[in-house]
Design a protein that fits this description.
Elements (H helix, E strand, L loop, with lengths): L1 H18 L25 H16 L9 H32 L4 H5 L10 H18 L5 H18 L10 H10 L6 E4 L2 E4 L8 H20 L3 H22 L12 H24 L6 H9 L2 H17 L1 E4 L5 E3 H10 L4 H25 L7
Antiparallel strand pairs: 1-2, 3-4
Helix pairs in contact: 1-2, 1-10, 1-11, 1-12, 1-14, 2-5, 2-8, 3-5, 3-12, 5-8, 6-8, 8-10, 9-10, 13-14
Length: 379
């Protein structure tokens, strides 16, 4: 489905945009994550991608008839391991480059693993893909909606009883991650002027993400079972609106927040993703509007993980490689040089946004070359 590639491309472009501002100190509010509780446009990009992963899972597992087998398990395990290794390799590469640019000896930079983060975006994708796929092949399709409900209700109860909505080390999510992963190997989250060792891609918060990808899978199965696009749009708009409304109403008792990936966050973001996917099916697959803006995002959508990985690596290099020093003795990197150039003719917030847009366009150029050569990198 071209509309699925476009939605997936929108999410990858959005992830690159919000992860690479010119300055973290000068951001427009829509390009920031919510401090803790709440929702901004930036909080939509990652869950949308997980939703798309679930939809694509329904397509890719169809060839195995959604039944467990040796070749299927080999594929699931291989993809999970590759995603984990990519996540760890990227984090190690960041430590290596930053260490070398600071003047650390090569041996010390290579072995600087004391603060290597165990989890992250790629690792979360690996875990969600692995457990989501197992649920699909081990459980009957009719039980999957019940499983989603059980996970979301159980998770809401766990957070409610375990101070899961509090920004503190008493939070059950932080307690589990600190106990298992260790403080030095976790992300340190900041909110309300404080910072604690709290991983937004932690162990416990992966549980609702499994429900998240299963919702996408159910949408994918509905798309496959419904051959009329108009009927697909109607079903997705109806289900998406109900899910969005349910999440919005329930957030008064179950706060919505990305960093703890609350149950209402799953409902709201999945509902929005379904409604947007329905609109894309209408305008792209039914009306045939396949050029212009759609082609731009399709470029990202056909090579999503490869371009996100490229953007992550480029961000590390641009932020670490020194070009010289300014009058105050501070190191000038590629990142700071481009951002400072934009500040010469725009405000600091605008310069920060222009850098992010330029970064997205740079990755698009690479993706466009791959697209034109019909090179599609699969993991």
């Amino acid at each position: 489905m071209l509309s699925l590639d476009i939605l997936r491309g929108i999410t990858i472009a959005g992830m690159l945009l919000v992860n690479n501002p010119g300055s973290w100190s000068h951001l427009y509010r829509p390009l920031e994550h919510a401090d803790w509780i709440g929702l901004t446009p930036t909080d939509l990009v990652f869950p949308f991608f997980i939703f798309c992963m679930g939809v694509a899972m329904a397509f890719s597992l169809k060839k195995f008839n959604y039944k467990i087998s040796g070749p299927l398990m080999l594929k699931i395990v291989r993809r999970t391991v590759i995603l984990f290794l990519i996540g760890w390799a990227v984090q190690w590469f960041g430590h290596l480059v930053r260490g070398l640019c600071k003047g650390d000896p090569l041996s010390e930079a290579i072995n600087n693993l004391d603060t290597l983060r165990y989890l992250g975006v790629f690792q979360r994708l690996a875990l969600v893909y692995f457990f989501g796929s197992l649920c699909v092949v081990l459980f009957n399709k009719r039980f999957i909606p019940w499983l989603v409900g059980i996970i979301l209700v159980a998770y809401a109860l766990i957070l409610g009883l375990g101070h899961g909505y509090d920004f503190s080390l008493d939070n059950i999510i932080a307690q589990i991650d600190n106990s298992v992963l260790g403080t030095d190997h976790m992300y340190h989250e900041s909110a309300y002027g404080e910072s604690i060792s709290f991983d937004p891609e932690g162990i416990l918060s992966t549980l609702p993400c499994i429900a998240h990808v299963l919702i996408g899978y159910l949408v994918g199965r509905m798309i496959l079972a419904t051959h009329n696009n108009t009927e697909r749009v109607t079903k997705m708009l109806l289900a998406g609106t109900v899910m969005l409304l349910a999440g919005w109403l329930l957030q008064y008792g179950i706060p919505c927040g990305k960093k703890m990936w609350s149950s209402t966050y799953v409902l709201i973001t999945c509902g929005m993703a379904m409604c947007i996917q329905a609109m894309l099916i209408h305008f792209v697959d039914i009306k045939g509007n396949k050029r212009g803006w759609g082609r731009f995002f399709e470029t990202f959508g056909v090579n999503p993980l490869a371009l996100y990985l490229l953007g992550t690596v480029l961000a590390i290099l641009f932020g670490a490689i020194p070009l010289g020093h300014n009058a105050d003795g501070d190191t000038i990197t590629i990142h700071s040089a481009v951002y400072n150039f934009y500040t010469t003719f725009s405000s600091e917030c605008m310069a920060s946004a222009l850098y992010a847009i330029s970064f997205v366009l740079l990755n698009w150029v690479v993706g466009h070359v791959l697209y034109n050569k019909k090179i599609f990198i699969k993991i």
